[in-house]
Amino acid sequence: MKTDISKFFRASLLKLNPYKSAREEYLSEGRDMILIDANENPFQSSTNRYPDPLQGELKQKISKWKNVNPNQLYLSNGSDEFITQIIMACCEPGRDEIMIVPPTFGMYKVSAQILGIGIIEVPLKPDFKLNTKAIIDSAKENTKLIFIPTPNNPTANNFDPIEIKKIIKSFNGIVVIDEAYIEFSNHESFTKLLEYYPNLAVCQTFSKAQGMAGARLGMAFANPDLINYLNKFKAPYNLNSLTINAALKRINEQVLVKNQVKIILKERKKLEISLRKIKFVESVFPSDANFILIRVDNSLKRYKQLLDYGIVVRNSSKNIFCENTLRITVGLKDENEKLLFVMRKMENL
Ligand SMILES: Cc1ncc(COP(=O)(O)O)c(C=O)c1O
Question: Is 105 in the pocket of ligand 1 (CB under 6 A)?
Answer without folding.
Answer: yes
